[in-house]
Amino acid sequence: MINIRKLEADLWESADLLRADSKLTSNQYCMPVLGLIFLRYAYSRFKKVEAEILKNRPSRGGKIMPVEASDFAAKSALYLPREAQYEFLVNLPGDIASAGLTGIDGHPVKSLGEAVNNAMLLIEAQSEQLTGVLPQTYTDFSDGLLAELLRIFNNDQIDSVGGDVIGRIYEYFLNKFAKNIASDDGVFFTPKSLVKMIVNVLEPKKGTLLDPACGSGGMFIQSGDFVNAAGMNANSSMTFFGQEKVKYNAQLCLMNMAVHGLTGKIKSGDDANSFYHDAHNLNGCCDYVMANPPFNVDKVKAESCENAGRLPFGLPGVNKKTKEVGNANYLWISYFYSYLNERGRAGFVMASSATDSQGKDKEIREKLVRTGHVDVMVSVGNNFFYTKSLPCSLWFFDKAKGEKAKGKVLFLDARNYYTVVDRTLNEWSEWQLKNLNAIVWLYRGEVEKYTALLKEYRADLRAKAEAADFEKQALEKAVRQETFADIVSGLTEAHAALQKTAKAEVEAAEKREKKKVQQLFEDRIEYVEDMLTEAKEAQWLVEKFGDGVYTDVLGLCKVADIDEIEDKGWSLTPGAYVGVAPVQDDGVDFAGRMAEIHRELLALQAESNALMDTISKNMKEMGL
Questions:
Q1: Nearest CA to 223 among 251, 188, 260, 248?
Q2: For residues 411 and 552, what is the distance between their CA atoms, to the nearest angstrom?
Q3: 3-class SS at 294?
Q4: Which residue in 143, 177, 148, 157 sits closest to 17, CA to CA?
Q5: Which residues, including other chains, have CB under 8 Å from residue 128's CB and lie 6 or more apart?
Q6: How far is residue 272's CA from residue 308's CA, in Å, rounded to a whole number?
Q7: 3-class DSSP state for residue 325?
Q8: Do 40 and 154 touch, CB atoms closer than 8 A?
Q9: Strands, E assignment, 28-185
């Protein structure tokens, strides 16, 4: 997350430059800057794929054959001609005319703005879906300003962010400069860990995937990564469809997909408003539906919705006077279900209130539960969203449940299971995502996947111990223990010993070497802490499910059947089923500790009063 924070600071710097040196509005300058981010990120991915291609590249006459656009197409990656590569642009001379460049139109390139516009045109020529999408207004900026922007984005942070980087940056801009747009209609950028959780549970393999509120395309990106990681080609296995009312967002989606080597059909504008249009005619045809729709939208025209169909359970509550749907959450929920084919799966983010809302919502929810297709419900805690602290739920439908899960719903309360990134942001780590996914596997009876995960934990810890260039013997001994509890214990001992060694080494180091020695040991300690965190996650999982037998865990998970859900008034709130985990006694004497804190407070207060007296006395002596 440090990389992202640094990137945000760079973006703010660039925005200040634009604001100071141009007459454009925030909406006008947002897209050009995102275009530069696109170029930088595209170049990062280009170099990565190029390195893969060159690994086994044949040679002729002692020279390795140069890479071509077809090589990148074979790897579902975007090819960048030399003049469209970020490194080329950032290293152009101050006097552009002296470089003797010729644009795609055959005319000489006389300014940096023209060079960047030409780069965009060259990329569009490589990708049909990008035609007319990339910004080409860079001649509106001075060469000096553009050069500074290119410099700002020329950092390694873009390489390490990964995932839906363009979408995340886009929301950053909206939040800083167009807050009215960022918060309109409950639109929030989908955090990467929530997208991953949705994709991991749905496990897309092949077929049609629809996101009817696709925003910047994060669901497509993560699904593509999932399919490619399974050894398949995402573009061959999947067909991606998206609807997005805001044309700006749709452009970002196409840019995002292109940089990840994905092709898709994205429609935008009023005709792509999912409340009133099935723009791709996909009702009942989708293998997968994924979305993070805007929450709690009101004033949706009821008659237009009814005419548009996709409401198998009827309309939610309608204001008789205005003839508008007061809250569109259950419109979305109905659409997601309706889009699925007879074996389809859906996963989506929804406002927490929707699991228990009353009136017409409750009637729809009852009909939905009675289908038997509600599969998994997950409660997510606060601070997962980038700009909002609201909690949410993840809903999953499966029209082709296995025998083990038929007629049942898995409720997962993950509100207290997360990693703190900073004061305002939480997420699920990669291992936490795997653990949550493992609970779903066991509920589905897929024990072999759970067993494979435990093997993955052991293999990864051993690989990290072997890769360490310090305390190797202690680390290898720790990770070879039979149980994860013993591994945690061994790593804890190694960590304590390393801290002790670090303290001694830093104290013994010469003054000029102290900082260097301290950094060395800080890096080593962090390495062991990462291993310890991973081992603790494995221990967490095994303590609850042993060798792979699903069991309800108080405060975490519960499998309920339709009768139990009816008894709970058709609530789909996980907390209503899983109960509350018992509070562990930490062995602290509460009364004694409170007395101790009170004494500390009194001492601090006395110290504060003494300081104030000293300050006051000094000010009087100064005649103030």
A1: 260
A2: 10
A3: coil
A4: 148
A5: none
A6: 12
A7: strand
A8: yes
A9: 59-60, 63-64
The torsion angles phi and psi of 513, rounded to 5 degrees, stand at -100, -10
C-alpha to C-alpha distance for 542 and 163, rounded to whole angstroms: 29
Is 200 among the domain residues? yes
Task: Quote the CA–CA distance of 5 and 114 in Å, as a whole number.
Answer: 31
Phi, psi of 543 (to 5 degrees): -60, -30
Mark 112-137 as b/e (b = at least 16 C-beta within 10 Å): bbbbbbbbbbbbbebbebbeebbbbb
198: tokens are 């949705």
With tokens 């060259």, the residue in question is: 122
- Who's near 92: CB < 8 A, 6+ residues apart? 99, 112, 115
How many angstroms separate the CA atoms of 27 and 576, rounded?
Answer: 44
In a domain, 556, yes or no: no
If one counts the domains in the chain, the total is 4
* CATH number (domain holding residue 408): 3.40.50.150
List pLDDT tens digits, range 384-416.
886 677 889 999 999 999 888 889 999 999 999
Quote the pTM value: 0.84
Does 97 share its domain with 42? yes
Radius of gyration of the chain (CA): 28
CA dihedral 459, 376, 576, 420 (to 10 degrees): 40
Question: 265 and 396, same structural domain?
Answer: yes
Q: State yes or no: pLDDT of 180 exceeds 60.
A: no
Alpha-carbon span 99 to 9, nearest angstrom: 32
Asked whether residue 138 falls in the same domain as residue 239, the answer is no
Residue 155's pLDDT is 72
Question: What confidence tens digit (pLDDT) does each residue in 552-599 have?
Answer: 999 999 999 999 999 999 999 999 999 987 765 545 555 555 655 666
Domain that holds residue 13: 2-161
* Whole-angstrom distance, CA of residue 566 vs CA of residue 570: 5
Give the tokens for residue 243.
């609807």
Pair 397, 349: CB distance under 8 Å:
no
Residue 66 has pLDDT above 50, yes or no: yes
Residue whose structure tokens are 């807050």: 179
